[in-house]
C-alpha cells in the first residue's frame, strides 16, 4: 500500500523545534519532505519574494528525509517545493508547529497559515499547527494528537479550497481537555508600539503586540482554547466572495452603467 506523501513547512525556520515535532509525529505512517525558510519568517502571511533571488540549501535531516531551506517565506517554500524540488505531488501539506497561537483573526498575518494556503490554491489540502505556549513542551505532550489529526484527515480528505487551523492550548491552565472542532474567533494580535531612542538620537519603534479582546461565541477557538481544548477550525479560501453583498448590490451596480 502506498504511503501518503506529506510536505512539511513552517515560518519559524528549519532549525525550529516545532517542525521537528511535525516530522516526529508523522514519519511512521507517511513519506515526508521538508522545505522551510532559512530563518524565522513569522508574520509573513502569504507574502512571496519578488525582488531578490531565491537560494536553496540542502539540509541534512534524520532518517535521510529530504529537506531543504530557502531564503524566503513559507509561501516561497511551497512554491519552490512544488515547482522545483519535489518529483511527487504532496497529498497533504502540514505547517508548524508554530511557536505561539494562531487563533482568531491572527490567521490573516500568520506565515504558518500562508504556507498552507499556497497549497490550498493548488488544490492540495493542508493543516496548520500552532501552540499557545511561547516555548515547546516535550514531544510526548502533542505527538499523539498531531498523528491522530493528520491520519484522520488523510482518511477523510479536507474538501478542495479549505484547510484546517489547529491550535494547542496553554498547559498552565486546566491542561489538555480534548479536541474540538471550532469556529474561527475574532481576536488577534494588534500593535503595541514601543518607542526607543537610537544612540545617535533619532527615535525608532519596536512594533510589539497585544491581544485584542472581542466578544466571542462559545464555540470559537479563542474560548475553547481558554478552556483547555485543542481547536480545529475549518477555513475556506476557495471562494472569497461575499455572496450577501453580491446579491444586495448586483442590480444597483448594473444600473450604474447608464449613468457613466
Topology:
Elements: E1 5-9, H1 17-26, E2 31-37, E3 56-58, E4 67-70, H2 74-85, E5 92-99, H3 111-120, E6 126-131, H4 139-155, E7 162-168, E8 178-181, E9 188-190, E10 194-197, E11 203-206, E12 210-212, H5 221-226, E13 229-236, H6 243-255
Parallel strand pairs: 1-2, 1-5, 2-4, 5-6, 6-7, 8-13
Antiparallel strand pairs: 3-4, 7-13, 9-12, 10-11
Helix pairs in contact: 1-4, 2-3
Give me the number of helical elements.
6
CA-CA gap between termini: 63 Å
SSE succession: EHEEEHEHEHEEEEEEHEH
Q: Number of folding domains?
A: 1
Instruction: Report the radius of gyration as a whole number of Å.
Output: 20 Å
- CATH topology assignment: Stationary-phase Survival Protein Sure Homolog, Chain: A
How much β-strand is present in the residues? 25-35%
Assign an overall shape.
globular
- Uncertain spans: none
What's the CATH H-level superfamily name? Survival protein SurE-like phosphatase/nucleotidase
Mean pLDDT: 91
**Beta strand count:** 13
- Major sheet: 9 strands, mixed
Oligomeric state as shown? single chain
**Sheet/helix structural class:** alpha/beta
CATH architecture assignment: 3-Layer(aba) Sandwich
CATH top level assignment: Alpha Beta
**Main sheet: which strands, in order across?**
3-4-2-1-5-6-7-13-8
Helix share of residues? 25-40%
Amino acid at each position: 500500500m502506498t504511503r501518503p506523501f506529506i510536505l512539511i513547512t513552517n515560518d519559524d525556520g528549519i532549525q525550529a523545534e516545532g517542525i521537528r515535532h511535525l516530522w516526529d509525529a508523522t514519519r511512521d505512517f507517511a513519506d515526508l519532505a521538508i522545505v522551510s525558510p532559512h530563518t524565522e519568517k513569522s508574520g509573513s502571511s502569504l507574502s512571496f519574494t519578488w525582488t531578490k533571488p531565491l537560494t536553496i540549501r540542502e539540509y541534512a535531516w534524520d532518517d535521510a528525509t529530504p529537506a531543504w531551506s530557502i531564503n524566503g517565506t513559507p509561501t516561497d517554500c511551497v512554491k519552490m517545493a512544488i515547482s522545483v524540488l519535489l518529483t511527487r505531488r504532496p497529498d497533504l501539506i502540514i505547517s508548524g508547529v508554530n511557536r505561539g497561537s494562531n487563533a482568531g483573526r491572527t490567521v490573516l498575518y500568520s506565515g504558518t497559515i500562508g504556507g498552507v494556503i499556497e497549497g490550498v490554491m493548488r488544490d492540495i489540502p493542508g493543516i496548520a499547527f500552532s501552540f499557545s505556549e511561547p516555548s515547546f513542551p516535550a514531544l510526548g505532550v502533542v505527538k499523539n494528537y498531531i498523528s491522530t489529526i493528520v491520519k484522520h484527515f488523510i482518511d477523510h480528505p479536507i474538501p478542495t479550497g479549505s484547510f484546517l487551523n489547529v491550535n494547542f492550548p496553554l498547559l498552565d491552565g486546566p491542561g489538555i481537555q480534548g479536541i474540538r472542532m471550532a469556529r474561527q474567533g475574532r481576536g488577534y494580535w494588534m500593535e503595541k508600539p514601543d518607542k526607543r531612542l537610537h544612540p545617535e538620537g533619532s527615535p525608532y519603534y519596536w512594533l510589539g503586540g497585544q491581544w485584542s479582546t472581542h466578544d466571542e461565541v462559545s464555540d470559537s477557538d479563542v474560548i475553547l482554547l481558554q478552556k483547555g481544548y485543542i481547536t480545529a477550525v475549518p477555513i475556506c479560501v476557495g471562494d472569497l466572495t461575499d455572496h450577501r453583498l453580491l446579491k444586495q448590490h448586483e442590480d444597483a451596480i448594473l444600473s450604474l452603467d447608464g449613468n457613466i
